[in-house]
Amino acid sequence: MSGEFIDSNVLVYLFSRPEPAKQAAAMDIVQRGLDGEGVISFQVVQETLNVITRKLAPEVTIADARAFLSDVLTPLWRVMPSEDLYRRALDIQERYHYGFYDALIVAAALWAGCTTLYSEDFQHGQRIERLTVVNPFLG
User: Fold this and answer.
1) 122: which DSSP letter?
2) Structural domain boundaries in the chain
3) For the whole model, what pTM was predicted?
4) Domain spanning 4-134, CATH architecture
């Protein structure tokens, strides 16, 4: 199985009016994800909803957040928490010296069989097992 794991920072840029280039890149990734093999985890859902309803100026309304959950997040959401996922995250944390939450993102992407991780929080081009990190906002 192959797929594209989408980190929360990509989803948040969908709401970034001051950064239209990043917003457009995020829209392209999310649309492709919705049309095919896009994947997110429970952690991405939580982080995205928290940021868009609490940290953006102006904040997204709860009604808009509910619609975004139904229309975008839920169709992409394929990874739920499990003991095996947390154990894998701890192994990745130990091996790559990531913080736990970053390791959990990588573990979720690998668990889902993804080959690409879209994120600006990791080193662009880094390979982690079969996963390649892509920062879609470079250049």
Assistant:
1) S
2) 4-134
3) 0.95
4) 3-Layer(aba) Sandwich (3.40)
